[in-house]
Design a protein that fits this description.
mainly alpha; 44% helix
Length: 101
């Protein structure tokens, strides 16, 4: 995945988002019980059908969105992506060749 800075309106990716007409609360489950896990699965299903999920994920990672489902990933999954991205960025700045996913 090519990591680049994403913006809210720079490419108007949100206009094409599958979630644009979905209640935003779906993407911000509260708790960790069965209802929250079901809500999380429903949110990720919307993302799974989204033509701009990658742009959404890039936006979320590069702007440090801490909560909710973005680009099909929840908070913990994005934290791991962010850690990997930072490690790759450090290696790249140190002159080590880095291959993207």
């Amino acid at each position: 995945m090519a990591w680049r800075q994403a913006t809210w309106d720079g490419t108007h990716w949100r206009d094409e988002a599958a979630c644009r007409d979905v209640d935003p609360r779906l993407f911000f489950a509260v708790g960790s019980g069965p209802e929250a896990l079901e809500q999380l699965a429903l949110a990720k299903a919307v993302c799974g059908e989204c033509p701009v999920a990658q742009e959404c994920l890039i936006f979320a990672v590069t702007t440090n969105q801490e909560y909710g489902v973005w680009g099909g990933l929840d908070e913990e999954e994005r934290r791991e992506v962010r850690r990997q991205w930072r490690r790759a960025s450090r290696r790249s700045s140190e002159g080590v060749a880095v291959q993207g996913p």
